[in-house]
Amino acid sequence: MLLIFFDEVKTQPHYPIYHIGGVCIDEPHLVEIEAEIAAIAQDVFGTTRLSKKTELHMQQIYARSGEFGTMNNFEDRVRIIERFMRILSRPEVKLIDVQIDSLHPKASARPAEIAFMFFCERADQYAASEDKLAMLIGDRESDKIAERSSVSLSNYRIFGTEFQFGRKKITNLFESVHFTHSHLSRFLQLADAYTWIRQFVGNNSNSENARHRAILDLLKVEENKMYAAKYKHWPTKNAW
Predict the structure, then answer these.
(1) What is the pLDDT of residues 73-84, one digit of tens each?
(2) Which domains does the chain possess?
């Protein structure tokens, strides 16, 4: 069985792309990958205990905010981000990348719904290619969003997805969408890292800012090649 953990990054006034990023891990590899993420927490916080105070949140790490407010050395924070990149580049970690241009007339009214639909399609396609069932696990932001996602997946499983290119059946995603708070799951923190990095690249790829370049240059290192197993960029660009 595959577990697919996902996170989303909403649009910003200067950056209209809505992101959903997912990390897909087969059951035999869960323990070793969780241990690798927990080792980062141990080095940073001195404990692997899950709590809001030990959450590895990419935006906070980069911006020196929240629990990272006293971590003044930028290079130390960059090293944490690189460690996540290396985990995301492991062959056992499969990545799903969905990006929706919210400025497009067909997406502007409901980018979150369209992004989730495409994410379900791509997650299902990957699971089918592996001849496995898969379960989706997301970050619980609110009961309303959790219910909306679960109802949507239920409808997709019964009726298929529907868009201008026709209906696609969902055959390998099972049960409902399960949600928990990101500070209670190292895997959701890994999904947060992937989604944040994808947004960071899209938002800053042409920047000459030294701190932006420090993150972007990490992606040129062979060990940090995070290629998506499945992606959908709609209706704009190709995957990198």
Answers:
(1) 999 999 999 999
(2) 2-234 (3.30.420.10)
